[in-house]
What we know:
Layout: E1 12-15, H1 21-32, E2 36-39, H2 44-56, E3 61-63, H3 71-85, E4 90-93, E5 105-106, H4 112-140, E6 144-147, E7 159-160, H5 170-178, H6 182-186
Parallel strand pairs: 1-2, 1-4, 2-3, 4-6, 5-7
Helix pairs in contact: 3-4, 4-5
Amino acid sequence: MYQPLFTLTGKRALVTGAGRGMGLGIARALARQGARVAVNDALPERAREAAECLVNEGHDALAAPADITDPAQLHEMVAGVQASWGGIDIFAANAGVPVGGMTYGRFLESAPEEWKAYIDLNLYGLMHGCQAVLPGMLEQGWGGSSRLPQSPGGPACPWESPPTPLPRPVPSASSGNLLRRPAARASPSTPSRWVR
């Protein structure tokens, strides 16, 4: 029998990119710890199927479909989750692969048009997501946020590493630097322990 390491009973989690793969695994892990989980995916059918899967396993879950690269959809989805559950306590920003997929190849041979979907999702999607959930977390006085890397070996990047050593790829470095402590940037009086 599964024994949770700690309890998240009563906590409300939103996991982006949770329709399958690592995102669904994160949603399942949070649910096993007792959290209610809103399953986000850009494809509504995938979000519904993943949420139904969690419900069938005995967890409290709901589908929260939205394309997080579209700020209007993202804010509407967050407002819907907040209206259903009264707030969001945990924001797991997992989405990292654009709906159309990514092309893999040599970075120096890639064109800026190829980068746009990746940047829109991994940088702007993350920033819009934090901007959408932080006001509610600040108002309730508690919340947690995490940007999850898409690769266990390092930051997600659809291109091969260049032959010369460079710091981390721009999207990952930018999102990490801009949003390392989003609550601290949201309010000077917010203790950093609320949002990490």
